[in-house]
Amino acid sequence: MKHGVSFRKFSRTMSHRDLMLRNLVTSLFEHERIKTTLPKARDAARLAEKIITMGKKGDAGSHNRAASFLLKPVALSNLLQTFSKRYAERPGGYTRVLKLGNRKGDNAPQAVLELVDNPHDLRWEMTARAVGWDLLQDKVQKQQVSTVMKHGAGETKQVLAAEKRIEFGEKGGVLRPQTRWNVQKLLRYRGEEGLNELSEKASTHADKLLATPLALKSMFDKKKQIEQHNLAPRPIAGQKHVGETRSVLDMSKGRLGYQRQAPSKVLTMKKTFNLKSHHV
What we know:
mainly alpha, three-stranded antiparallel sheet, 3 strands
């Protein structure tokens, strides 16, 4: 019976397992992002949440317990000076586990364990790019491409402020439901400063999406002046461009998709082959 078993054993002794988890939490506090297997990331995240809560209390007892758990002084200094101030208004949820697929070799599930709101937050970067794509997609569908290229995405901050007020499950808005949900989670404890930063990143990514085709076209024109037989770059199969309404799965089925012959043609070919073979 599994009474009182709270952590995985990892096929190690208790001392080895505890030291391994302490090392993972120390590396997390030192670098704010680590890559490990999924079970180790989940168990290390539980311990990291408790240590950050100790650092937020600020009393002598919590300080001594955190200092005895962490293996490096730099991790303790980051906990007391940086993380306790960063997560002062956040009641919990200081870590995030992102799956990375299976590892080559032993096929073990990999994951990235990171502290939320860190300077290189992966969810923050992905959400900013998704917001830039959705805003540009909406602009291209409503306006001409030349107008969008002159003014860019525009009004990103106002759109994000409006999307932040939309409750989960309600229809409307510019962003996709999952992108809107990620925006609301990221901006819940960041306030006005976070809203400005996210809108700036989204606008920058939208401008890159607009500038990339123009840059490729200018490079192709220069190469064509040097070599007349230079062909235009072919689009990647399944690549979704700005303003495209079809899904990536439908586009990837183009000429690369396997097209079966009609049943009538297959039967006709079989009958003809049988008649010929019989006649011979």
